[in-house]
Amino acid sequence: MMRNIIAALFVAILGFSSMAFAEGKSAKININTASAKTLDKELKYVGETIAKRIVEYRRKHGNFSSIEELSNVRGIGKKVVEANKKNVVVQ
Question: Residue 38 sits in which domain range?
Fold first, then answer.
C-alpha cells in the first residue's frame, strides 16, 4: 500500500515538473541568428514589427555584441531588454 502511494506521488511530481518545463522556454534565443518569426514568438514584448527591425538592424550593423545593444533598435527600450535578458544570448 505504501509503495503504491509513493509511486503515485513520484509519477505526479514527475508529471508536474515535465509540464512546467514544457510551458517554459527550454533554450535561449541567439539574437544574432534567430529569424524574425522566432524573435516574434519567443521574446517578451516583441511583436512582428519589432522582430523585423531586430533582423534589419543586425543586417545593417552586423551581429550584436551584447544583449543591451538591442536597445539601439527602434521600439526597444531598457525594459524590453531587461525582460528578455535571461532568455537571450549573443553568440
Answer: 27-89
